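Let's sit down with a protein and look at its sequence and fold side by side. Go ahead whenever you are ready, and we will take it from there.
>
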Amino acid sequence: MSITQNIQKLLTQLPQGVKLVAVSKFHPVERLQEAYDAGQRIFGENRAQELASKAPQLPTDIEWHFIGHLQKNKVRMIMPWASTIQSIDSEELLQLVNKEAARIDHHIKVLLQLHVAKEQTKSGFTTEEVLQAARNGAFHDLSNVTIAGVMAMATFTTDMEQVAREFELVHSTFLTLQSILNSPHFTEISMGMSDDWPVAVKHGATLVRIGTDIFGAREY
């Protein structure tokens, strides 16, 4: 199927209120343009250089989400383009993002990345760390950042019961954070990819990050 057909199929399957993030890493701008022409407006990139090079070549109403591990020395590179950083994995990174956003008079949304997978390679706050930081006031008084929710990746496994348990932990942590932060802007749960998004949606996802099911296999 074409990119257009893939997007149309996904949009018929996603429940109302769940937004589709087209994960476009390693795909050329022509393929992103095709997705844009099919009505897609939210795109997710994993690498700072790739986001900074693609964004100026594409329509200005695209909502760019940075979804990969963000190195501190790359924050400045993505700041003019990103509307949301989904991968805030430390208090230090959050403060730096706020500082860089203020420097260019930009306001940015962020999601707190939770580490719930049984894999050490994935980054993020543990559930204990993020709740402690919230109780300690680490997520208040940010002049140029809105904390809009959480993001997580499940363990890479075919065991969908394990995936469901991890997504349920994300959802329960989100609800606890919501009660601590007491912010009307804290509404998003980004979880679920091509292999497991239906499970994510069952457990409260409001954003799903899908690449392969839209663009096909990546061209490395």
